[in-house]
Specification:
The structure is a homotrimer of 149-residue chains. Helices cover 31% and strands 30% of the residues of chain A. Chain A is α+β, with helices and mostly antiparallel strands. Chain A has one domain: 2-Layer Sandwich (60s Ribosomal Protein L30, Chain: A), CATH 3.30.1330.40. In chain A, the strands form 2 sheets. Chain A has a 5-stranded mixed β-sheet with strand order 1-2-7-5-6, covered by helices on one side. Chain A has a two-stranded antiparallel ribbon with strand order 3-4. Chains in contact: A-B, A-C, B-C.
Chain lengths: 149, 149, 149
């Protein structure tokens, strides 16, 4: 099964790449590493605004992280032309817009990790933590480093 | 002196690797780089819960960062089988669970940096900053990139 | 035009490298990658203290990010001896000391990205987000990964 078959099986439709909202590139490649810029969670064509522990539940945050990871895969597809060249997801950083008492950033981040592991078949290194805010008030932001052929 | 001798001299006992609490790998290797996932500070077998500038002092935070770095070394030992293959610690990111007025993240982070520099004999690049929260309410989280033979 | 010519055209004077304020190295090189430690924004010879959304405006934050990026270039010059060996800026992380309601981290970060893109002629991958605090109470902190010859 190809990566695209696995994504289809998970019900994932790859989006067009969203152009960066500021002065940076959506990705940069150096050697066999592909660095993906921070991708914010989106809904209804705009930022998914909210804060975990305040206006969003853990399960909503998890869905937001899932969507940000899917957008990130759309960028990887645009960068490589073929997700089949991805050798592994090396490292993922998941920022969770967190009110002071919210401590389930790891559960929110799982929404992203499960898509990525499902697509490529191996687990990645990861950090997840609470950000005091995220651009546009988005609830989740995800960056990643991938190894490509 | 081996890395293990230096650790013993610093009174460090390497722990067994703690399995990740969510959907990710404790480390991923790509080329000669080893990416370590975020390791939260632990005490008494569980997360070391607290916030700098609220419930914990700078010296407590420093001790928490030291323990998280030791756990991280336990993971490096599990990943490599021999800490002697580590060429250098390239980069460390230290997240400090910080109340609004706490501005000594660099002093907290030194608790981790001193163990790592003591073990491997050279200084690493580093960022340290305040997170609004950390998974499980832990007070410190540390991730790292190492170069291995 | 050399990198130095482009910097001069932008009115940038490279500073001497600021020694780290704690137990870490200003940079580490591995292979052709140069990892730069977090550089905090400075003003009048000390940390530029303040928080976006509280005591500083977006345009002030943008200027702070610009200055931190210039300091970072001073470190790259010290690390390499010649900015001409820089192949590309791979990845930049911009931490913005953010009050709860501040959501323009991307605009603050542009102050850094524009200097870096102006100097080297290509865009970089980037993440920008809100930190609950930054060492010394500084308003901005920037780390980066560069590819060098």
């Amino acid at each position: 099964m190809s990566v695209y078959d696995r994504l289809e099986e998970m019900g994932v439709v790859l989006p067009e790449m969203t152009p960066p909202a500021a002065s940076f590139a959506p990705w940069v490649r150096t050697g066999d590493l592909l660095y993906l810029s921070g991708h914010i969670a989106r809904r209804d064509g705009g930022p998914w605004v909210g804060q975990l522990g305040a206006t969003l539940s853990t399960s909503q945050g998890r869905e937001a992280a899932r969507r940000a990871a899917i957008d990130l895969l759309g960028t990887v597809h645009a960068a490589t032309g073929d997700l089949g060249v991805v050798k592994q997801v090396v490292k993922v950083m998941v920022l969770v817009n967190s009110a002071p008492g919210f401590i389930e950033q790891h559960l929110v981040a799982n929404g992203a990790s499960e898509i990525l592991e499902g697509a490529f078949g191996s687990a990645h290194a990861r950090s997840a933590f609470g950000a005091s805010q995220i651009p546009f008030g988005s609830c989740v932001e995800i960056e990643a480093i991938l190894q490509v052929a």
